[in-house]
Amino acid sequence: MNKFTRKTWYGVFVGLIVLSMLLPACGKKEKGYTIGILSASPNLETTITGFKEGMVALGYVEGENLTYVYHGAITDTAKLDPEAEKLVAAKVDLILSLATPATLAAQRATADTDIPVLFIPLTDPVGAGIVKSLAQPGGNLTGVTFSTQEGRRLEWLLQVVPTIKKLYIVYTPTNQGATSALKTVSEAAAKLGVELITREANNPEEVEAGFKAIPEEADAVFFLPDTPVNIRIKEWAALANERKLPTSGPNLAAMNDGILTSYGVDLAVAGKEQAARMADQILKGTSPATLPVEMADFFSGVNLQIATAIGVEVSPEILRQTDMVIR
User: Among 33, 116, 263, 295, whose Cα sits 20 to 30 Å from the Cα of 320?
Assistant: First the structure.
């Protein structure tokens, strides 16, 4: 009996030792990740919100297995590089960059590191030198683009307001995304019989001057995907609406700022359904070099409140074709 008891207690003792070794492993929390966010425009907050929602759906819970480092949108492009360097110094696992200026800053800051960068939304990542190709990015950056919708967006504006003959555009000549989009719009305008009136703006003062002096002959105002210009798009839209001029914005979110029409990306959807999924792939080990850049889906939109305010009558046929209507 005593011999049996000693064996029994010995087995219990060994079992407790083994259990004590296993419990820490079993109770070990899932690896936590840190994502740094670098944004060049406050107009892109809906993208961040959508991205975070997408990450939650994929099992990433902020405060548990995911931490965000974000100090707000940086509208002064000269401050983007220092902020990107701060994210690198913080040793984040991934940088989410929003707009071309922010992505270029993130590219420079991570050049000698293995930190991946996921961009959204970009107009022309190849032309800007951010990736080698959409199919094979080739470096530490990949993301979501919406490159070729500008011509179709002009077509949509003309479907809504067929009387437009002269289109006014203020743009930043040093912004690769803006100049690429302008080329596409110019080609489309030539085919559609629309004349472009363009004005270069190299700083915020010139942007403001451009919208405060919209030419009398302009029939409409067209906003390119141009962060330095669109930071204050709500104000510029208000100036155009005072003149009863139709407007076209670079994404659907712009309609909430007083823009009449858009044919573009739903930034919240792109952030939630595409960028979040790509971030998950990267955090799990997929290299950005081989993760193809994705094209965002495009949607048409009309703001009926603005249409009424500026005296534009939108036909029932157009409304039937529209993906998003603000009433």
Answer: 295
